[in-house]
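call fold(seq) -> tokens
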Amino acid sequence: MFENLALSSVLIIFCVAVHFFGLTILAHILRGRAGHLRPRNTLPGQGLVIVVIVLGLFFIHSVEIWAYALVYHAIGAMPDFEAALYFSTVTFTTVGYGDVTLGTDWRMFGAIEAAAGMLLFGWSAAFLIAAMGNLRSFEHGTPRKPD
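ret:
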């Protein structure tokens, strides 16, 4: 069990760092694009920014899911990489179909991935809502100042 917790801690630190730096880059993109938005062309500009943010969030989560999949494959918890990637995806997203499962040696590691995924998706949702709120302020011609 100690091995599960130690490896989980390493992966959580990695995922939080990836998430933090990914969101920082997306915030930088948002700030840079926000100066170009004008009330007369907000719809296309805002749409582009939202698409970039959502695709960026997908990329960030993909990196995190692939990191877990690589570890599952490296420790031999899954028979092949496709199974590891599939299991990691359904676990990280907390779907948990149950058609592919971990052995008893690594199931705590899988459970912790689900908890991490839930928290990281929440963080992403909060970021997206905040970004959309900042963009909506342009509809009224009063952009918020970035923090």
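Helices lie at 2-34, 42-74, 81-92, 107-136.
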